[in-house]
Write a structure and sequence with these properties.
Blueprint (H helix, E strand, L loop, with lengths): L2 H13 L3 E5 L7 E5 L1 H23 L3 H18 L1
Antiparallel strand pairs: 1-2
């Protein structure tokens, strides 16, 4: 994403109340984003059921299978980026 597109997304998230910009006290050029409690709750509402199912699926694998899946996902992540 370009810096302009990133700024536009942040503006929209801020306008929706999902994030708040916090100016750095030590660096006038720096801004930190703080995620609102409502945005966190919305994220858990949306992704929580998926995460629960992934945890159950992962726990059903033995340690060797979990290691193999981790190696695969790490390799995929490295290949993408």
């Amino acid at each position: 994403m370009t810096s302009q597109a990133t700024t536009a997304v942040i503006h929209r998230l801020e306008a929706a109340g999902h994030v708040q910009r916090l100016r750095s006290r030590t660096d006038a050029r720096s801004t930190h984003l703080q995620v609102s409690d409502t945005a966190v709750a919305l994220g858990w509402q949306f992704f929580g059921p998926l995460l629960d199912r992934l945890i159950v699926t992962t726990q059903a694998l033995d340690s060797d299978e979990q290691a193999r899946v981790k190696e695969y996902l790490t390799a995929v992540s490295d290949a993408l980026g």
